Amino acid sequence: MGKIKQGILGGFRGTVGTVVGSSWNGVAYMKGKPQSVRNPRTDAQVQQREFFKEVQALVAQLSDEQLVSLFPSVTRGMTRRNMLTRQISACADYTDDVKTFDLSLLEGIGNGERIDSPMLESLVSEIDGSLAIYAEAAAADAIGKPTEANILVVAYNLTQKKVAVFNTDVTDTSEGVTIPVGSWAEEGDSVRFYLTYAAKGENVYLRGFGSFIIKTRPEKVGRKVGK
Fold it and tell me: What's the number of domains the chain is made of?
């Protein structure tokens, strides 16, 4: 409950009856309480809420430690989860009037140091008795990994809409790189992924992972300037 400390003409904070008192920049003001609180559920609003619920479920798959690896630096006023949410949301797609996101549009996530790492594609298959994805030696060589650095993988499961960061102990890529995926995927799932690395003994977050690019971006229309 609010209290009026300076009489009827004084400012106050809180609720008195049906009036709410507050101040802004030293100026006291009052406003009436709303008679009812509306929560419109138009088709567009429901669609947007379901979309963000889906994006948040995806972002929640990554641990705080993995997010630090992906985002070595933080934008003021945003958390790392906020930043990943914004990146995923930029890949919005519409299918049969349902708003969703298309992970195939992501060429990378995070804001770490950029390395030349091509986006690779693979189907999950059984390799050496476990489910895994595979990158050929040429793809691993393309990132310019130091000899003793271990391979790290950032992967998107397009079939199940999952993301993951896999740390491996692979340093020798002469025969390619096999990345076990465990229960993160099922046999036959379509996966896109890119490789990066961490030097021996180096904390992953000090290097960071790739950068963020939208594969298809609408053209910017220049502003018309009158003569």
Answer: 1
